[in-house]
Each structure stands twice: as structure tokens, then as C-alpha cells.
Design goal:
Organism: Streptomyces griseoruber
GO molecular function, one term: prenyltransferase activity
Order of helices and strands: HHHHEEHHHHHHHHHHHH
Number of helices: 16
Strand content: under 5%
Radius of gyration: 21 Å
Number of strands: 2
Protein name: Polyprenyl synthetase
Keywords: Isoprene biosynthesis, Magnesium, Metal-binding, Transferase
Distance between the termini: 15 Å
Structural class: mainly alpha
Oligomer: single chain
Shape: globular
Mean pLDDT: 93
Family: Belongs to the FPP/GGPP synthase family.
Length: 356
């Protein structure tokens, strides 16, 4: 991205982080829970800690840049929409870490493991409170929109967008788990999982919310916005899957091969199985779903992939998706403001190139 866009994105991120902290101060002070309860404020505290612990806030940036497609003037309702987006993200992180049995998130303990430490002899209590913590984040993400200071019809439309995004994400989680029961899901299945699980709430919903807040009707561009979000999501998910095996563990801050050990039929696994011989296939399949898989085995799978040209194949695929999305955004210049269109042109290319 250009330096100007990066500076603008950084400004959105910094301003939102201040807003998010103030939001949790307000919610914490006014939490409607019985005075005797310790669990309720502890739950909110864990949500606060996870929410404020990090993240690039790219969904917030997409939201603000979507509003800039229409106007450069201040837009009422963007703060509420940004809070809603990131609270829904917090909900997703809490439940993802429970589903994946992940001990850490953003450099700290996951909510699930924080509860496991809090209740070492009560596993069902830890499990139940984790589910409820995620549910609370989801409820807060909708409540903040219902209280947004925007016209009633805009508020209703924004709630509908976010509710639909949440439902799509839940379906995405379900089919993501279902995908890993298939012997070899085809590419369209992987694209569909990515669309439901991440593209719709990470790209499409923030764009729709930003346009609605700025007075635009995103329904008139529904098909194009959905396809753009899908392509950006596919490129980004390919990049994440690629980095899981071929990335630099020191840069990522986590070991390589997590998807293999977890048995995930990722884009990388599909690309590997499409080019290996029978002996190599046995090595890959033995590693797939083996939680005790050693770093040496992961390195062997990586070496097979590199020898077979998988990194080059995946890079070409993700760049193709990014170019298609960028070309689609370029066509918006006849309807929307130039500088914001440029952001959406550059976003997919930046998303796949960073850290690759």
C-alpha cells in the first residue's frame, strides 16, 4: 500500500484502540449483574483483556474506508459499527480457541485456558463459562448497534447486516469442521468455507456497514461487493495456509505445521496432495491429523512441498485472486471517490504479499 494509505490505516487503528478501551470502561461500570456475582465481571474482564490485547483492526480500517467511498466528512455511526465488528471478532476468537483447544491467543492465554486455570478441577465449568463469554461478546456486538445514534432505518439495516454476518460465520465454522471429515475436499469447497467463515464478516459486513453509515445503499452493489469480499478472503486464507507450512516461525511467533497436526484440509494440504508421488503422499497423510507430529516430520513435509514447487503454485493462485479483486475494485471509480477506491484496489494485493 502507499505510505498515505498506511498512515490513514494506522490512524484508524490507534483511534479505535482508544475507543475500545473507553467502551469497556463504560460497560464494566454499568454491567447489569447481581452485586453478589464474581463470575459476571470476571467474564467481562476476560473479554476486555482479549479484545485489547492486539490485532491489526483491519476490519475497522475497511469500515472507515468504505464510508470514505461516499464522503470524506465525519460519519455518525462508524464508532458503533467499529465496536460491533470487533466485539463479533472477539466472540469468534473465544469460540475458535475452544474448538481448537488453543492455549494462547495474541501472546496471552486464550479465554478457555484462562478459565481452565481458574477452575482446574471443574472442566465443565471452564467449558461452559468459555461458551458464555463468547455469547456475551456476540450480544454486546448487537447491543452497541441498537444504541447507535443514527436514524432508525439505518440502525435497523446495520443490525441486519451484522446479524447475517454472525449467522454466516457460524455456518462457516460448522462447514469448516465438516470439511476435515472429507478425504480430499475440492477447491470450491475450500473457497466456500473461506467465504462463509471469514470473508463475509471480515470484508463484506464492514464494507456494508460503512456504506450504510455514510448514507449509501449497498444493496445496489450487493453482487459486486460479495464477489470482491470472497476473492479477498480467498487470497488471504491461502496466504495464511501457505505461511502455516512455508512461513518463518520466528516472524510468525508460532511453530509451523499447526494445520497439519490439527488435520485441517487446508489450501496447502490440497496443493501438496495434488503433486506428490505415492511415497510422499504417505508422509503427508501420516502427518495430517497427528498431534504428536515432530518438527522433523513437518520439515520433511515442507521439503517435499518445496521440491514439488508448491510455494510457487500457491503464490500464483493467491496473487490471481488478489488481482481479480483489485481489478473489480478499479471499476468502482465511476461511482465512488478515487482515494477510497484506491485503498480497495490495493488491499487484496497487500493482503497476500505481506510476510510472504
Amino acid at each position: 500500500m502507499t505510505q498515505q494509505i498506511l498512515e490513514r490505516a494506522n490512524g484508524h487503528e490507534q483511534r479505535f484502540n482508544t475507543l475500545f478501551e473507553a467502551y469497556f470502561d463504560t460497560v464494566g461500570a454499568g454491567l447489569d449483574a447481581p452485586s453478589f456475582s464474581q463470575f459476571a465481571p470476571e467474564c467481562l474482564g476476560l473479554l476486555r483483556e482479549l479484545s485489547l490485547r492486539g490485532g491489526k483492526r483491519m476490519r475497522v480500517v475497511v469500515l472507515h474506508e468504505a464510508a470514505r467511498l461516499v464522503t470524506d466528512d465525519p460519519v455518525e455511526g462508524l464508532d458503533a459499527a467499529a465496536l460491533s465488528i470487533e466485539l463479533l471478532q472477539t466472540h469468534g476468537l473465544v469460540h475458535d480457541d475452544l474448538i481448537d483447544d488453543s492455549p494462547t491467543r495474541r501472546g496471552g492465554p486464550s479465554t478457555y485456558y484462562a478459565y481452565r486455570e481458574r477452575f482446574p478441577g471443574r472442566p465443565q465449568t471452564a467449558l461452559g463459562l468459555t461458551v458464555l463469554a463468547g455469547d456475551l461478546a456476540l450480544a454486546l456486538s448487537l447491543q452497541v448497534l441498537l444504541e447507535a445514534k443514527v436514524p432508525a432505518e439505518v440502525r435497523q439495516a446495520m443490525v441486519e447486516v451484522q446479524t447475517r454476518a454472525a449467522a454466516d460465520t457460524f455456518v462457516g465454522q460448522i462447514i469448516d469442521m465438516e470439511r476435515d471429515f472429507a478425504a480430499a475436499p475440492d477447491e470450491e469447497v475450500l473457497h466456500c468455507v473461506t467465504d462463509y467463515k471469514s470473508a463475509r464478516y471480515s470484508i463484506l459486513a464492514p464494507m456494508q456497514l460503512g456504506l450504510l453509515a455514510a448514507g449509501e445503499q449497498p444493496a445496489r452493489m450487493e453482487k459486486k461487493l460479495r464477489e470482491y469480499a470472497r476473492l479477498v478472503g480467498i487470497g488471504g486464507q491461502m496466504r495464511d495456509d501457505y505461511l502455516d507450512l512455508f512461513g518463518d516461525a520466528a516472524v510468525m511467533g508460532k511453530p509451523c505445521g499447526t494445520d497439519l497436526r490439527d488435520g485441517k484440509h487446508s489450501y496447502t494440504v490440497r496443493a501438496l496432495l495434488a503433486v506428490v508421488d505415492d511415497r510422499e503422499r504417505r508422509i503427508v497423510q501420516a502427518a495430517l491429523g497427528d498431534p504428536s507430529c515432530t518438527p522433523q516430520t513437518i520439515a520433511a513435509v515442507r521439503e517435499i512441498g518445496e521440491r514439488r514447487g508448491v510455494p510457487r503454485i500457491m503464490q500464483a493462485d493467491m496473487r490471481r485472486s488478489a488481482r481479480q479483486a483489485s481489478e473489480m475494485a478499479a471499476g468502482w471509480r465511476t461511482q465512488w471517490r478515487e482515494e477510497a477506491v484506491t485503498f480497495f484496489e490495493q488491499l487484496p494485493l497487500w493482503s497476500v504479499e505481506r510476510a510472504m
